[in-house]
Specification:
By secondary structure, the chain is of the alpha/beta class. 38% of the residues lie in helices and 17% in strands. It folds into 3 domains: 7-185, Rossmann fold (3-Layer(aba) Sandwich); 216-347, AICAR transformylase, duplication domain (Cytidine Deaminase, domain 2), CATH 3.40.140.20; 376-498, AICAR transformylase, duplication domain (Cytidine Deaminase, domain 2). Strand 8 (253-258) and strand 9 (261-267) form a beta hairpin. Helix 1 (7-16) packs parallel to helix 9 (142-151), helix 13 (302-308) packs parallel to helix 14 and helix 17 runs parallel beside helix 18.
Length: 506
């Protein structure tokens, strides 16, 4: 047992039922220290632990006791002949391989030592014989098993044993895939990719009501639905996009999204509250938020909840909700309130992006937080350097542009979006849409900064932005016509920065 959470109370209940306890060294000591009789596996098998603990449980008296068929005409006699007692209950959790490789700086040799051999072998043996053997690999199942044994004179039901065996095969399969994927990363040639995740929930439907959809993995470890209808496929995509966007910002920030695209983003400045952040985000586009998603990186307060409640919203996401805010929002029964765990922001989640492809999968590294902002003052390409105000506006607009579907154009100031153009075939079209949206919202683009998620392939996109009022620009650069774009910026006294990184989002 690498994880002994809840083990001792469970073992005490087993001892009270008259169960004999076998265990390996470290766990045996923990049990013995509690005054519970326990026999070490090495005493039981007559074979010592060897190779620094690499070999402990692989022995006929262990695996035979788990595997032999109690109702088979020959198996019991063979077990008796070779002195192999029955083992009717197995409790194993595996070496923490996943936690080990998640540590920064872990070496390959350190990871290899956390590959469990005996644990999966015993788990699979017991699960294969679930007709007679109860197997536990999840501490959440301790109480279920103990209660069944206490009410039935020491037995468990076949239904329970079958359910637990299925959990084991899913767990060991996932464990092996994690090991294979990790080792595969250290090879010069890719040997394959696999993934296995438990079913988290059946979703209301897919992108459309006629499509069925399911959610797999540990989504619920990070997101808790406090009220509202069950989630659909698109709701999960919206929640993912919204929280990835809001995690870019440290200041109190609110973002509004529709179909995973930001409609408006606002940050509170010193002396301001979350309500001001909301106003800045909402002013960008007062039409698109209808039926959209609102996300905050601070607990939602009563004053914000009151104004939000005046518009139709599908999902609101926040680290928490004040009691007064909950009281206001719970009146809207279909509104989904989603609480996002702090671990989402502190630990990060996605290391890979996986999408289906004809006949297989596409797998790539997740795009980290907006790149290219370090040393931004040294990345100026124009004759006029940006002012401090323009640099702050560039930083803000660049962070937002990363989360807008390509081709992406974002006009912004230091604390708010002013116009957003998304998903067009031409970057000029995206620019024109952003200008039009700003005009519709009654927002001036004079003195704004414009961010482009990828290079301007021609000067026309930049010129359109400048004619609309932008005085500074942030973009990756990398076009064969970069010099033309830089010349166009210099002719118009525009400050421009090349980040050296693009953030396509398809």
């Amino acid at each position: 047992m690498s994880d002994k959470k809840g083990l001792i109370p469970f073992v005490k209940r087993l001892h009270k039922l008259g169960v004999e306890i076998l265990s390996t060294g470290g766990t045996a000591k923990v049990i013995s220290d509690e005054g519970i009789p326990v026999m070490e596996i090495s005493d039981y098998t007559g074979a010592p632990e060897m190779f620094d603990g690499r070999l402990k449980t692989i022995h006929p008296k262990v695996h035979g006791g788990l595997l032999f068929r109690r109702d088979h005409p020959d198996d019991p006699a063979q077990a008796e002949a070779y002195d192999i007692p029955r083992i009717d209950l197995l409790i194993v959790n595996l070496y923490p391989f996943e936690a080990t490789i998640a540590q920064e700086g872990v070496t390959l040799s350190e990871a290899i030592e956390k590959i469990d051999i005996g644990g999966p072998a015993m788990l699979r043996a017991a699960s294969k014989n679930y007709n007679a053997v109860t197997v536990i690999t999840d501490s959440d199942d301790y109480d279920v098993v103990a209660e069944e044994m206490e009410t039935s004179g020491g037995e468990t039901s076949l239904k329970t044993r079958e359910r637990l065996a299925i959990k084991v095969f899913l767990r060991t399969g996932d464990y092996d895939k994690t090991i294979g994927n990790y080792l595969n990363q250290s090879q010069e040639t890719d040997s394959g990719y696999s993934v296995s995740l438990p079913l988290a929930s059946e979703l209301r439907y897919g992108e459309n009501p006629h499509q069925e959809a399911s959610l797999y993995g540990n989504f619920s470890d990070y997101f808790t639905r406090l009220q509202g209808k069950d989630l659909s496929y698109t709701n999960v995509l919206d929640i993912s996009s919204a929280t990835e966007l809001i995690s870019e910002f440290l200041r109190p920030t609110i973002a509004i999204l529709k179909h995973t695209n930001p409609c408006g983003v606002g940050c509170a400045e010193e002396g301001e509250g979350l309500r001001e952040a909301w106003e800045k985000a909402f002013e960008t586009d007062k039409q698109a938020p209808f039926g959209g998603v609102i996300v905050s990186n601070r607990p939602l307060t009563e004053d914000v909840a009151r104004v939000i409640s005046q518009i139709f919203t599908d999902i609101i996401i926040a680290p928490d909700f004040d009691a007064e805010a909950r009281a206001i929002l719970q009146k809207k029964k279909s509104l989904r309130l989603i609480r996002v765990a702090d671990e989402y922001f502190t630990n990060g989640i996605n290391q890979s992006v996986i999408r289906s492809a004809p006949g297989g999968l596409l797998v790539m590294d997740a795009d980290p937080k907006a790149l290219g902002l370090d040393g931004i003052e040294e990345k100026v390409k124009t004759e006029r350097p940006p002012s401090a105000e323009e640099i702050n506006a560039m930083r803000f607009a660049w962070r937002v542009s990363k989360h807008v579907k390509s081709n992406a154009i974002v006009f912004g100031s230091k604390d708010r979006t002013l116009g957003i153009g998304a998903g067009q075939m031409s970057r000029v079209d995206s620019c024109n849409i952003a200008v039009w949206k700003a005009k519709e919202a009654g927002l001036s683009l004079q003195g704004s900064s414009v961010a482009s998620d990828a290079m301007f392939p021609f000067a026309d996109g930049l010129i359109s932005a400048v004619e609309a009022g932008a005085t500074s620009c942030i973009q990756p650069g990398g076009s064969i016509r970069d010099e033309e774009v830089i010349a166009a910026a210099n002719e118009r006294d525009v400050a421009m920065v090349f980040t050296g990184h693009r953030h396509f989002l398809h």
